[in-house]
Amino acid sequence: MSKKRVLSGIQPSGNLHIGNLAGALQNWVSLQDDYECYYFIADWHALTSQYADTSLLKENVKDVLINCLAAGLDPEKATIFTQSRVLEHAELHVLLSMITPLGWLERVPSYKEKQFEVKDKDLNTYGFLGYPLLQTADILLYRANYVPVGVDQMPHLEITREIGRRFNTFYGEVFPEPEGLLTKFPKVPGTDGRKMSKTYGNCIYLSDTPEEVEKKVKTMTTDTQRVKRTDPGDPELSPVFQLHKIFSSQEEQNEVAEGCRTAGIGCIDCKMVLIKNLHAHLEPIWEKRNELLDKSDLLEDIIESGSKKAAKAAEETMLLARKAIGLDGLV
């Protein structure tokens, strides 16, 4: 029995952080043994908000690939590729744009949220509005059964399902409706308590040094109830404790939670436990990153091989889509 197919992508919009690690990469690694996995670096998606300056795009694509491999993705098990090397993504995007109502794109929550949050870029472009449609093409192109997502990404997956349904209604059954695989840690807090995001500048990056990680954790927001060392607190109100839930053992979580509630430990004590565990998680990644940084030929071979395999699967889908629409020739 053939494996079910999983599809997911990640934007090369800057260095990856521990939120990407916990929310995506670790999940990708856990899926690659049991599913037929297609993982892509979404360089076209990066242009939806960073179209005015592409000077770091190649460097960011390389860094994403290095981090994926350092986190444990195996190109022998999963197909790893870049979006722009498989032109069928653009072709299906164009075809789907013909049938997608404008209102469907305007109602996606992140459309207005990002426009409100991002003040230093002009996001009044079709590329930004059409982001969910390109994402739909990414998913439907591989006729994926599952898409690993966080809860906040479910609206994007739902519009994919709706557009696929609309295509099938017009032209016949071509695309299966993909289902979401909810990630274990969909929201990872940043150093200021908000969701970790490059937009907010609150990230702990996979490329940070041990010293930088320690400095960032020590300055993290904690429970505001603990004004003094002797004040008891509520660990659930502390972003530091939310990171403990991801990177610390259950025993350590219990100890720091009890210490917080009883004022038995201070916030810096809590942070030092987290720093130790972050270092333990990141050290193998740092080691692997250093090994890969100067292996450009190997990285190019991985992307080239993965992109060729992805293109083959994509062309199989497009043959079906073109035939369904009537774009497969005159006879």
Fold topology:
Elements: E1 5-10, H1 18-31, E2 36-41, H2 43-50, H3 57-71, E3 79-82, H4 88-97, H5 102-106, H6 109-117, H7 126-129, H8 131-141, E4 146-149, H9 154-171, E5 179-182, H10 210-218, H11 239-247, H12 250-262, H13 267-292, H14 296-325
Parallel strand pairs: 1-2, 2-3, 4-5
Helix pairs in contact: 3-13, 4-8, 4-14, 8-9, 10-13, 11-13, 12-13
Structure description:
With about 325 residues, this protein is mostly helical. The protein has 14 helices and 5 strands. The strands form 2 sheets. A 3-stranded parallel beta sheet has the order 1-2-3. Strands 4-5 form a two-stranded parallel sheet. α12 runs antiparallel to α13. It is globular, with a radius of gyration of 22 Å.
Task: Summarize the model shown.
This protein is mainly α and 331 residues long. Helix content is 55%, strand content 7%. It has two domains: 5-189 and 296-325, Rossmann fold (3-Layer(aba) Sandwich); 210-290, Tyrosyl-Transfer RNA Synthetase, CATH 1.10.240.
Question: Which labels suit this protein?
Answer:
single chain, 331 residues, mainly alpha, Tyrosyl-Transfer RNA Synthetase, 2 domains, 3-stranded parallel sheet, two-stranded parallel ribbon, 14 helices, 5 strands
Major sheet: 3 strands, parallel
Structural class: mainly alpha
Mean pLDDT: 93
Indicate the radius of gyration in whole angstroms. 22 Å
Provide the β-strand percentage band.
5-15%
Helix count, DSSP H or I runs of 4 or more residues: 14
Q: For the record, what CATH class of the largest domain applies?
A: Alpha Beta
What number of domains? 2
| N-to-C series of helices and strands | EHEHHEHHHHHEHEHHHHH
Strand order of the largest sheet: 1-2-3
- Going by CATH, what is the homologous superfamily of the largest domain? HUPs
Give the overall shape, derived from the CA principal axes.
globular
Low-confidence stretches: none
Going by CATH, the architecture of the largest domain would be 3-Layer(aba) Sandwich
Question: Would you count the extended β strands for me?
Answer: 5
> Distance between the terminal alpha carbons, to the nearest Å?
36 Å
**CATH fold-level label of the largest domain:** Rossmann fold
